[in-house]
TrEMBL record, chain A:
It holds the Pfam family RMC1_N. It comes from Acipenser oxyrinchus oxyrinchus. One of its GO terms (cellular component) is late endosome membrane. The gene is RMC1. One of its GO terms (biological process) is regulation of autophagy. This is Regulator of MON1-CCZ1 complex-like. Residues 25-143 form the Regulator of MON1-CCZ1 complex N-terminal domain. InterPro entries: RMC1, RMC1_C, RMC1_N. Residues 382-630 form the Mic1 domain.
Automatic annotation (TrEMBL), chain B:
It comes from Acipenser oxyrinchus oxyrinchus. InterPro entries: Ccz1, CCZ1/INTU/HSP4_longin_1, CCZ1/INTU/HSP4_longin_3, CCZ1/INTU_longin_2. Belongs to the CCZ1 family. This is Vacuolar fusion protein CCZ1 homolog. Residues 20-144 form the CCZ1/INTU/HSP4 first Longin domain. GO terms for cellular component: Mon1-Ccz1 complex.
Length: 656, 476
C-alpha cells in the first residue's frame, strides 16, 4: 500500500525534562524556547531552543512559583512572572548586573494575565483591565511606561511573527481587539466580532481562547476560530472560520474550513496549510485556502484537501549510551491528551519532554489526490515542492496510470504560469536595476525564486529527456507531449530553449517522421536558430529536404550570411554563392581564394573564368588594379588561369 | 462533352482538348492470338466495338514494344498524331494505362463548308502525363493497387473495380482546363501563426488520444492544408480528392448555413456546427448508415486500408483515418460528434479570428501588378494568384490559355536540368513571363507592363521575391 500519512513529527525533536511535581515546563512561542524550571529555579532552569545557540541553563532564586517565564529576543533579558501584580527581570547582557528588578502593573487592582516581549527591550503587560507597553532599561534596571490602554480583558493572544496582540473583550468575549507593535509604538487595529453559533442567556463568556489561534498564511495574518457544532441547528459538523486581519482596514471573514465532524480539535499551520487535528478519531486534515472550491468572491468554503489521516506513527528514539539502547524504540502515543499545540507548527508533549515541529510530506498527498490539476495547484504552493512536482510530471507521462493529454496540458499550463510570473518579476527587477542605477535609486528587492518555479531546463533534465528515451511509450504520445509543452510555453510567451527543439527533432528523426518535422518547420513551430539550422544540415543525408529547410532558416536569421555561403560552396553552387553575397552587399569582404578553390573543384572552366573575372573586377574597383595581392594567396589560381586561358586573357589594368 | 467556344471570327468554332479513349490493359493476360480481349481490363467508352478496342490496345502495345528497343527502361510516354495525342503509363508492372486526348481544333468555314484544323501543338505532354498519373493515384487511393486486387479476387474483381471507379471519375476530368498546376499537383497550405498552429496540434493529438482508434489525422481550413499525419504522397492525392471533389460537393449547404446554421447541436450547452462530410449525414436518423469511404495508404510498404471520416465545422475540416479492421458504430460516431464538434467549432472561430488579425497587420492586399504561381517540390506547397478558387467542375484561371501554355513550356525546360535557372519570356500580348528555379522551388510570374524592358522586369521580380518570399532562401 502506498504511503498515506501526509503529516509527520520531525525526526529531531527538542528534548527537555518532562513536567513533574518538581519541574515546571513553560513554552515561549516567540523564541520557541522550552523552559524547564526545577524547584522554582533554585535547582536550575534549562532553556532549550530550536538550535543550540538559543539553549541556556542557569539558576535563579526560588521566590515562589513561576507563572510565566520568557526571554526577550536574543536572550538579552529574562522576564519572570510569579504573582499577578508584578513581573521580575534579570539582565543576561554581559557586564550588566545580574540582579533581579521588578515592575508592578500600573493599573490599580488589576491583575496581570501575562506579558509578551515585542522587542529585545520592549514588553507588554496584559492585565484584566488593559494593556501596558514598557521599555526596559537594563542598565538602569528599571522600566519606562510607553503607552497604556484601559480595556476589560477576558484573555489575550500574541502572534510574535506579526507582533499583534489580540484581546478578548466584552462579556461574551467575542469582541476581539487587536494591537500592533513596532519599535516603540503601539497601534490599535479596528476591533471585530466573532460570530458565535449560539448566544447564551444570560450572557457569559462564550468565546474561549482555546478556540482561537493566530497565524500567518500566505503572508497574511489570520485569526482562526474553531466554531463548534451547534446542536440547535442541523449542522453537519464543526468548522474553522478564518478572519483576515490586515494591518490597515477592517477584519473580514474570508474562509470557512468544513471539518464535517465534531469533537475536540487543535490547529496548526504548516507550509501555509491549516492542519486540524481531531482527537477522538486520531486523525488530522489539511486545508489550503488557495485551493478554491467555490468561486464566490467574498467567502470561500473549503473541504479538506485530502481525506483525514493520522500523523505518521512515531517512535521515540531512546537516548543514552549505545550499550544501553538495545531495546527497540518505544512507539509514541499520538494525539495524546497531554499534547499541547502551539502556532504555527509546534506540538509539545510536556509529560514526555518532547517538542516536535509538525511537517507535511508531499508524496502521500500525491498518492491520495487523483485530480492532477488540483494536485499541481496544491504542490505549487508548497515549500519543498520541486522534486515532487517533477516526479509527478514524470509519472503522469509513464506507466499504467499515465494521464491523458488534456490533463498533461493543464499541468504544463499551471507550471508555466508560475514560471512566467517569475520571469516577469525577474525582468522588471532587471529593468528597475538598470534604470535605477542611472538615476541612483535604491535597488528594489530581487524576486525570490521558489521551488515552484519549474523551468525548461528542469523539465528537460528531470522529465522530458528521460521520458523520450522510454521504449515502451508510443512515439506518437512522446511527440504529443513535447508539442504540448512547447504549446504551453508559447501560450505564456516564454522563449523556448533550443534543446527542447532538438529533443523534438531527435525524436522525430529517430522514428523517421521527417514529414512531420517538415511541417513543424514550415509553420515555424521550431524557432529559427543557428544551432537548429546546423542540426538540420546534418540531417540532409537521411532527409534531403532538410537542406532547403536549413538554408531558409539561415536566411531568416539574417546574421548567417557566411554560413549560407559555406553551404552553397560545399554544394559547388559557386555562382549561386557569389550572387547571394553580392545580393546582400557582402562581396567586397569575401575571400577570393575560397571561391576560386570551389570553382576550380567543379572542373568547369567557364565557371572558373567567370569567378576569376569577377574578382579581377573587384580588385580593379577597390584597388585600381586587377591583380591579386600576395595576402590573398591566389598565385596558384592565377597560374591555373594563365595555363587554361592564356596570359593575354588576364584583365589589363585600366589607366585611371 | 465537347462544348464549342465562339472565337473572334463569327464563323470560327473552337473545340478544346477532350478525352477520346481511356483504357487499362495487361499484355500478360492474353498473350495468345485470339485471346487479345482478355488483356483489356477497362475501356472507355465502353460502346466501342470489340475489335476496335483490341486494335487500339494492340497498337499501344506495339508502340511501347517498339520504343523499348531504343531505351529499354524508358519506353514512349506519349504519341503525337495530327488528331490526337496518346499518353502511356505503366503504374504497376505490366499494367498499362492509356489516355487518348483529342487535340483542340478550330472549325472554320471555308467556302460554306466546315473545315477542321487540329492544333497539334497546343497541349503539353507534361500536363497530361501528370493527369494520367493522377488517375492512377486516385484509383489507388480508393481501391488499392492492381496487384493486391488480383490477389484478392482475380481479374474479375479488378475489372469490376476499374469499371466502378473510372465510370464516374472520367466524367470529372476536365481536360480542357488542365495546366501547370496539374503537373505540380501541389498542396495549398493555410498561412497561420505559430500559436494557433500549436493549438491545432494540441487538438489533433487530443482527439487521436480520445478516439483511440484514429491512426492518422489531417486538418484543413478553407480548403487549405494545415496538418497531415499521412505521408506526403498519400496526402497529396487525398488533398486533391478533398479539394476538387468532396468539399465542392458540400460547399452549398455551408454557404447557406452561414446565417442560419443547418444543424445546431446541443452538447453540454455548447452549440456546435460540426457535421460529417463522409458517412452519416444525420446522426439522429435511425436509418443512418455508418459507412465511410475506404482509402489505401502506404501502399509501398505497410499497405493500410482505412476508413476516411471527414468532419467539418465552419471552415475547418478534419479527416480521421481509422483502420478498416475496426467496425465503426453509431456509438463511435456519436462520441466523435460530441467530442470533436464543440472543440472544432471553437478552434475554427479561433483560426478565423487570428487569420483576420494577421491580415489586418499585413495591411489590405492591393491588387498586384503581377500574377504568380509558386511551387516547392520539397513540401509540395503551391500558391497561385492565377487560379480562382477551384470548383467541382473547372479550375478557373484568370489569364489567357496562351500564357498558361508558356508557363508549361518553361516548366518543361526546368525539368530537363538540375541547375538553378531563370527564363524570361516576352509574350505576344505585351506580357512578360518570368520563370525562376532555385533549388527545389519554382516561381512563375506574369507581368502586365506594356513598355517595360528586361531590366525593369528583372527588378519587378526581385521586388516580388523580397515581399512575398522574404522568409525563404530564394536565389536571385
Amino acid at each position: 500500500m502506498s504511503e498515506e500519512h501526509y503529516l509527520e513529527l520531525c525526526g529531531n525533536p527538542v528534548q527537555f525534562e518532562n513536567a513533574s511535581s518538581v519541574n515546571n515546563v513553560f513554552f515561549d512561542e516567540a523564541n520557541k524556547q522550552v523552559f524547564a524550571v526545577r524547584s522554582g529555579g533554585a535547582t536550575g532552569v534549562v532553556v532549550k531552543g530550536p538550535d543550540d545557540k538559543s539553549s541556556v541553563a542557569f539558576r535563579m532564586d526560588d521566590k515562589g512559583e513561576v507563572k510565566c517565564i520568557k526571554f526577550s529576543f536574543g536572550n538579552k533579558i529574562l522576564a519572570v512572572q510569579r504573582t499577578s501584580k508584578s513581573v521580575e527581570f534579570i539582565n543576561f547582557i554581559p557586564d550588566l548586573l545580574h540582579l533581579e528588578y521588578s515592575q508592578e502593573c500600573k493599573t490599580k487592582n488589576a491583575s496581570i494575565l501575562g506579558f509578551c516581549w515585542t522587542n529585545w527591550n520592549e514588553i507588554v503587560f496584559i492585565t484584566d483591565q488593559g494593556i501596558e507597553f514598557y521599555q526596559v532599561l537594563p542598565d538602569k534596571r528599571s522600566l519606562k511606561l510607553q503607552k497604556s490602554q484601559s480595556i476589560n480583558v477576558n484573555w489575550y493572544m500574541y502572534c510574535p511573527v506579526t507582533s499583534v496582540i489580540l484581546l478578548s473583550t466584552t462579556v461574551l468575549g467575542n469582541m476581539l481587539q487587536p494591537f500592533f507593535f513596532r519599535s516603540g509604538t503601539m497601534s490599535k487595529i479596528s476591533k471585530f466580532e466573532i460570530e458565535l453559533p449560539v448566544v447564551s442567556k444570560p450572557a457569559k463568556l462564550s468565546l474561549s481562547e482555546r478556540d482561537i489561534a493566530m497565524a500567518t498564511i500566505y503572508g497574511q495574518l489570520y485569526v482562526m476560530y474553531l466554531k463548534h457544532h451547534s446542536r440547535a441547528v442541523n449542522n453537519p459538523g464543526a468548522e474553522v472560520v478564518l478572519y483576515h486581519l490586515p494591518r490597515e482596514g477592517t477584519c473580514k471573514k474570508m474562509h470557512v474550513l468544513k471539518l464535517n465532524t465534531t469533537g475536540k480539535f487543535a490547529l496548526n499551520v504548516v507550509d501555509n496549510l491549516v492542519v486540524v487535528h481531531h482527537q477522538s478519531s486520531q486523525t488530522s486534515m489539511i486545508f489550503d485556502i488557495k485551493l478554491r472550491d467555490t468561486d464566490s468572491s467574498t467567502l470561500s468554503v473549503h473541504q479538506p484537501v485530502v481525506p483525514a489521516r493520522s500523523i505518521h506513527p512515531y517512535k521515540i528514539p531512546l537516548t543514552g549510551p549505545p550499550a544501553v539502547t538495545t531495546a527497540t524504540p518505544v512507539p509514541c502515543e499520538l494525539y495524546s491528551s497531554t499534547w499541547s499545540v502551539f502556532q504555527p507548527d509546534i506540538i509539545i508533549s510536556a509529560s514526555e519532554g518532547y517538542l516536535w515541529y509538525l511537517q507535511v510530506k508531499l508524496q502521500p498527498v500525491v498518492n491520495l489526490m487523483k485530480d492532477k490539476g488540483k494536485l499541481m495547484d496544491f504542490l505549487l504552493q508548497r515549500r519543498d515542492c520541486k522534486m515532487v512536482i517533477v516526479s509527478v510530471c514524470f509519472q503522469m507521462l509513464n506507466g499504467p496510470d499515465k494521464s491523458n493529454l488534456s490533463v498533461i496540458a493543464t499541468v504544463f499550463d499551471k507550471l508555466n504560469q508560475v514560471y512566467k510570473e517569475y520571469l516577469e518579476a525577474e525582468q522588471s527587477y532587471t529593468m528597475a536595476v538598470e534604470t535605477g542605477q542611472s538615476r541612483g535609486n535604491p535597488a528594489q528587492k530581487r524576486p525570490v525564486r521558489t521551488q515552484a518555479v519549474i523551468d525548461q531546463s528542469d523539465m528537460y533534465t528531470h522529465v522530458l529527456s528521460q521520458f523520450t528515451e522510454k521504449v515502451d511509450v508510443s512515439h506518437k504520445f512522446i511527440i504529443a507531449v513535447l508539442m504540448e509543452y512547447i504549446r504551453s510555453l508559447n501560450q505564456f510567451q516564454i522563449t523556448v530553449q533550443h534543446y527542447l527543439y532538438e529533443l523534438v527533432i531527435k525524436t522525430l528523426v529517430h522514428h523517421n517522421l521527417f514529414y512531420m518535422l517538415h511541417q513543424f518547420l514550415q509553420y515555424h513551430v521550431l524557432s529559427d536558430s543557428k544551432p537548429l539550422a546546423c542540426l538540420l544540415l546534418s540531417l540532409e543525408s537521411t532527409y534531403p529536404p532538410a537542406h532547403q529547410l536549413s538554408l531558409d532558416m539561415l536566411k531568416r536569421l539574417s546574421t548567417a550570411n557566411d554560413e549560407i555561403v559555406e553551404v552553397l560552396l560545399s554544394k559547388h553552387q559557386v555562382l549561386g554563392a557569389l550572387r547571394f553575397i553580392r545580393g546582400v552587399g557582402g562581396h567586397d569582404n569575401i575571400s577570393a581564394r575560397k571561391f576560386l578553390d570551389a570553382a576550380k573543384q567543379t572542373r568547369e572552366e567557364m565557371l572558373f573564368y567567370t569567378i576569376f573575372r569577377f574578382f579581377e573586377q573587384r580588385n580593379q574597383r577597390i584597388r585600381g588594379s586587377p591583380h591579386f595581392t600576395p595576402g590573398e594567396h591566389c598565385e596558384e589560381h592565377v597560374a591555373y588561369f594563365k595555363q587554361v586561358f592564356g596570359e593575354q586573357a588576364l584583365m589589363k589594368p585600366t589607366a585611371s | 462533352m465537347i462544348s464549342p467556344r465562339m472565337a473572334t471570327g463569327a464563323q470560327e468554332k473552337q473545340y478544346p482538348a477532350s478525352l477520346l479513349n481511356f483504357f487499362v490493359y495487361n499484355p500478360k493476360f492474353g498473350p495468345k492470338e485470339g485471346e487479345e480481349e482478355k488483356k483489356i481490363l477497362f475501356y472507355h467508352p465502353n460502346e466501342v466495338e470489340k475489335n476496335e478496342k483490341i486494335r487500339n490496345v494492340g497498337l499501344c502495345e506495339a508502340i511501347i514494344q517498339f520504343t523499348r528497343t531504343f531505351c529499354p527502361t524508358k519506353p514512349a510516354k506519349s504519341l503525337h498524331t495530327q488528331k490526337n495525342r496518346q499518353f502511356f503509363c505503366e503504374p504497376e508492372e505490366n499494367f498499362w494505362m492509356v489516355m487518348v486526348v483529342r487535340n483542340p481544333m478550330i472549325e472554320k468555314n471555308k467556302d460554306g463548308k466546315p473545315v477542321v484544323e487540329y492544333q497539334e501543338e497546343e497541349i503539353l505532354d507534361s500536363v497530361y502525363s501528370s493527369v494520367l498519373q493522377q488517375c492512377y493515384s486516385m484509383y489507388k487511393l480508393f481501391n488499392g493497387t492492381f496487384a493486391r486486387t488480383m490477389e484478392a479476387g482475380g481479374v474479375d474483381l479488378l475489372k469490376q473495380r476499374l469499371e466502378k471507379f473510372f465510370y464516374r471519375y472520367l466524367q470529372t476530368l476536365h481536360l480542357q482546363s488542365c495546366d501547370l498546376l496539374d503537373i505540380f499537383s501541389g498542396i495549398s497550405f493555410f498561412p497561420l501563426d505559430k500559436m494557433t498552429y500549436l493549438k491545432i496540434q494540441s487538438f489533433v493529438n487530443r482527439m487521436e488520444e480520445s478516439l483511440n482508434l484514429v491512426k492518422y489525422t489531417a486538418f484543413l481550413y478553407n480548403d487549405q492544408l494545415i496538418w497531415s499525419g499521412l505521408e506526403q504522397d498519400d496526402m497529396r492525392i487525398l488533398y486533391k480528392y478533398l479539394t476538387t471533389s468532396l468539399f465542392p460537393r458540400h460547399s452549398e449547404p455551408e454557404l447557406a448555413g452561414r446565417d442560419s446554421p443547418m444543424r445546431l447541436e446541443m452538447a453540454g450547452n455548447l452549440l456546435h456546427y460540426g457535421r460529417f462530410l463522409t458517412g452519416p449525414s444525420n446522426l439522429k436518423d435511425p436509418e443512418a448508415k455508418f459507412r465511410f469511404p475506404k482509402i489505401f495508404v502506404n501502399t509501398e510498404n505497410t499497405y493500410e486500408e482505412l476508413h476516411l471520416i471527414v468532419y467539418k465545422a465552419m471552415s475547418a475540416a478534419v479527416c480521421f483515418m481509422i483502420n478498416t479492421s475496426v467496425e465503426l458504430t453509431r456509438e463511435f460516431c456519436e462520441q466523435l460528434d460530441s467530442l470533436v464538434g464543440p472543440q472544432l467549432t471553437l478552434l475554427a472561430s479561433d483560426i478565423c479570428e487570428q487569420y483576420s488579425i494577421n491580415r489586418r497587420i499585413s495591411g489590405p492586399e492591393k491588387e498586384p501588378q503581377f500574377k504568380f504561381i509558386y511551387f516547392n517540390h520539397m513540401n509540395l506547397a503551391e500558391k497561385s494568384t492565377i487560379h480562382m478558387r477551384k470548383t467541382a467542375s473547372v479550375s478557373l484561371t484568370s489569364v489567357h490559355p496562351e500564357l498558361m501554355k508558356i508557363l508549361g513550356d518553361i516548366n518543361s525546360d526546368f525539368s530537363r536540368v538540375d541547375d538553378d535557372e531563370e527564363i524570361i519570356v516576352k509574350a505576344m500580348t505585351d506580357y512578360w513571363i518570368v520563370g525562376k528555379k532555385s533549388d527545389q522551388r519554382e516561381l512563375y510570374v506574369i507581368l502586365n507592363q506594356k513598355n517595360a524592358n528586361l531590366i525593369e522586369v528583372n527588378e519587378e521580380v526581385k521586388k516580388l521575391c523580397a515581399t512575398q518570399f522574404n522568409n525563404i532562401f530564394f536565389l536571385d
